Structure formats: C-alpha cells, structure tokens
Amino acid sequence: MWFKNIHLFRFLKPFTLSVDELDKQLQTVRFHPCGRLDMQTMGWISPLGRGEDVLTFTNNNCILFTARRQERILPASVVRETLAERIEEIEIRENRRVRGKEKKALQEEVLQDLIPRAFTRSSDINAYIDVTNGWLIVDTSSRKRAQEITSLLRKTLGSLPVVSPQLQQTPAVVLTEWLADQQYPADFALADACHLVDNGEEGATVSCKHQDLTAEEVHAHLDAGKLVSRLALEWNNRLSFVVDEEFVIKRLQMMGADDEDSDTVVDGNDAAQQLDADFALLNLELAALLQRLIEVFGGENEAVYQQMQV
Questions:
Q1: How sure is the predictor about 269, in pLDDT bands with cuts at 50, 70 and 90?
Q2: 89 and 132: one domain?
C-alpha cells in the first residue's frame, strides 16, 4: 500500500476523535452499491479489504481509511439515441410533433428504463489523518476527487475544519528559481520533467519529459518569462515525485523500490502485517518530506489560518 498522489489539507483545529470513535462514525456511512435508479453512490469500506468490518487502520498516530465510489456508466449519446427513437416512433404513429414538456417527460422515462441496465464502475480512494502533524492526506491528484472525500468525511463527522495549505512563498516562484538558477537545497535534485506556463494573455505551455532540465532550450523558455507549474524532483535519494504550483504531489515513488513486490497477494494476518509495514513506511517518509517541502516554501502562513478560524 503506497500513495501515488498527495492532496493535502491542514486541520484548523486539532483532530480529537479516537480511532474507535472515528470508526463508529464511518460505520454510519458504509458503502452500499448503486440502487436501481442511483447514478452514483459513495461510502466507506475497510482498508483491510473485502470481508473486514473495521473501517480504520492506525499506525504512528496516523489513521487510514478508504472510500469507495460507484457510478453507472450511461453515455449521453445512448440516452439521446434512445430518446430520438421514441420520439420518432410517436411522431410517426400519431402524425404529430413531440415538443416541450412531453419531450422532457419522455427523457425521464428513457432514464428510468436505462439506468437499472447500465453497468457500474467502482474506484477506491485511500486517505489518512496524521493526528500528530494535523494533516488530512488524500491519495488523488484530482481536486474534484479530493473534495468528494472531504465532503463525505464532513457528512460523516458533522464538521471538518480543513483547508488547503497556506504557504508563505508561492511554489511556482520557488520552483522557477530552482530551475532557472540551478540553486536548490542539497537534499533535493532535479529529475527529468517539468511543465512551464506563460502567464500572459496567450497562456502558452511547454511540457518537458525525459529531458535534461539544464539544457539551453529549457532555459530559453524561462528567459522568455514562463513559470514552472510542475517540476519533477528527487529528495534525499529516497523519494521521487512531481510537485505542482498548488502544492499537489504526483507520481510519488520510493527510489529503487521493486514494483513487482506490490503485486503480491496475501491473506488474513499476513495482509494486516503487510499493511502495517507499508503504512508505517508511507506515513514516516511522507511526514518528513512534507515538513521539508514546507520549509523550502517558507513555512505556513499562520496569520491566514487564524483569519479562517474567525
């Protein structure tokens, strides 16, 4: 178990629920598959896998939990085609045009017929609360999916005082300086990818992959005024990742890790022991990385947090 993406939220108040209390709250919003007419459903499942009742897993004062989202796959083109066929059938049979409210009513009938027959697709998102450091960490690069998790957690707990990290220095500015001047902290190293944007009216973008970031062509774009919106980095010869202008981390990897090991299937107590080891490694490494990144971005803006609490 490893988070590939990090969407970060800061708790404005200390998280005080115990593991048992949080588990009981999560149990009230357990995942249930889509009903006959549901287009989407979302709820909590066990991070330990199928057949487990417990909805939390804890290690190093970090509490892991998992959300499952299920949606029906019903392309708009299928709805339009079916609706058109029904309208055509009525117009031919009754020799009249179908308009306005009748067309809307037919569309509802089509949806009522098609939704129960539509296939479903499920996806899981892991998240954990780092109680010690006051973080909610969600394994997604998508802002929309991260907000779905916070909304579900807020619905579950009644309130959720979290906000995006407020940094003293804008990541785009710091990362642009690192790339332009080749001056960055000794524990970081440039990798081989970046994304540059022009803040002008045209908004030109340049994406570099498998590229020597010290090359003249890259720096020509920086000289032209482009800023770094994403930069691939390595840290302490332990972690590689991409960090973007909104302080979202993507493609997080342990350097030198063997991907084949992650495909090993284990059962019962072995699965719990493996999760315990993996989660311990993840939360310890990530806590150190986040602390260091926040330092190089000038720290957090406590004044902004205080204003949000008012």
A1: low
A2: no
In a domain, 164, yes or no: no
Q: Give the C-alpha separation, 273 to 84, whole Å.
A: 56
Residues 140 and 178 in one domain: no
- Is residue 10 left, alpha or beta, with left meaning phi > 0 and alpha meaning psi from -120 to 50? beta
Distance (Å, rounded) from C-alpha 309 to C-alpha 162?
10
Domain that holds residue 206: 171-309
**Whole-number Å distance between alpha carbons of 205 and 198:** 6
Q: Which residues contact 226 (CB under 8 A, 6 or more apart)?
A: 196, 197, 198, 204, 206
pLDDT over 90 (residue 70): yes
Question: What tens digit of pLDDT does each residue of 72-131 get?
Answer: 999 999 999 999 999 999 999 999 999 899 999 999 999 999 999 999 999 999 999 999
- Whether 263 is covered by a domain: the verdict is yes
Q: Is residue 211 domain-shared with residue 261, that is, in the same domain? A: yes
Give dist(CA 94, CA 87) in Å, integer: 11
Backbone angles phi, psi at 292, to 5 degrees: -70, -40
- pLDDT mean across residues, the chain: 92
Q: Are 218 and 249 in the same domain?
A: yes
The pTM score is: 0.87
**Alpha carbon distance 242, 31 (integer Å):** 32
